[in-house]
Amino acid sequence: DQQVKQNSPSLSVQEGRISILNCDYTNSMFDYFLWYKKYPAEGPTFLISISSIKDKNEDGRFTVFLNKSAKHLSLHIVPSQPGDSAVYFCAAGGTYKYIFGTGTRLKVLA
Amino acid sequence: NAGVMQNPRHLVRRRGQEARLRCSPMKGHSHVYWYRQLPEEGLKFMVYLQKENIIDESGMPKERFSAEFPKEGPSILRIQQVVRGDSAAYFCASSLDRGRGADTQYFGPGTRLTVL
User: Fold this and answer.
1) What is the b/e burial string over A64-95, where b = at least 16 CB atoms within 10 angstroms of the residue's CB?
2) What CA–CA distance (Å, rounded) separates B54 from B74?
3) How many Å separate Cα A34 from the centre of its chain?
4) Are residues B102 and A95, on separate chains, in Cβ contact within 8 Å?
5) A81 contacts A95 by C-beta, under 8 angstroms
6) Which of A6, A73, B21, B55 has the fewest CB atoms lying closer than 10 Å?
7) For A79-105, how does the pLDDT look when each residue is reduced to its tens digit (9 = 90+)?
8) In degrees rounded to 5, what are phi and psi of residue A30?
9) Residue B27 to residues A102, B105, B106: CA-CA distances in angstroms?
10) Cα–Cα distances in Å, from A56 out to A46, A49, A93, B65?
11) Over the stretch A51-73, which tens digit does the pLDDT of each residue have?
């Protein structure tokens, strides 16, 4: 039972354009959400988080949107850069036990 | 600015041997979490520890796996009598304090275990 889903295994975007990565969850008890970026042979790197009391959080080129009624969150990266090419994981939880999605591989084309 | 440290980065074991994976949390962090990632899958929670206490081990297999976080020294994830299905990347994360809400977890580089 996959409580956190990233339905797009891969995404290609031109440099300078917007990248939108999506994540859906099923458990309405989740109230804290995180995005991580992962390069091959490295650990996940924290990018940005959002709590359920907000619907948007922004940090530089990264913005996370949360739609609680749809149980959906998205990560926007603008402008996309070649160095953003990595696998992106969303994670959802309420305390410490985060459920991770299976990841979306983003490729930013120069 | 030391992050979460894990060693070894790569570990090869034969079936039936023991694997010991070490994790030193970020400075000032007292909460440690272990996750496992199988190929083409997301990270799966295994166990949450504080110093000298296992808080939640609901994600740990019931047999052969154990974890500790002693008062001094790193956290250890121990896998006894390894089998091929244990081959995976094992990630450790740490956080500062559970406090009033959820905490951001910061990950180490992982240990890639290969069981021959």
Assistant:
1) bbbeeeebebbbbbeebeeebbbbbbbbbbee
2) 14
3) 7
4) yes
5) no
6) B55
7) 999 999 999 999 998 777 889 999 999
8) -60, 130
9) 29, 13, 11
10) 17, 10, 17, 40
11) 999 999 999 999 999 999 999 99
Cross-chain residue pair B48–A97, CB shorter than 8 Å:
yes
Contact in structure between B20 and B64 (CB atoms under 8 Å): no
The pLDDT of residue B102 is 60
What six digits make up the tokens of A45?
């790197």
Amino acid found at B5? M
Which residues contact residue A99 at a Cβ distance below 8 angstroms, ignoring those fewer than 6 apart?
A3, A4, A25, A27, A30, A91, A92, A93, B45
Tens digits of residue pLDDT in B46-78: 999 998 899 999 999 999 999 999 988 999 999
- Contact: B108, A89; criterion CB under 8 Å: no
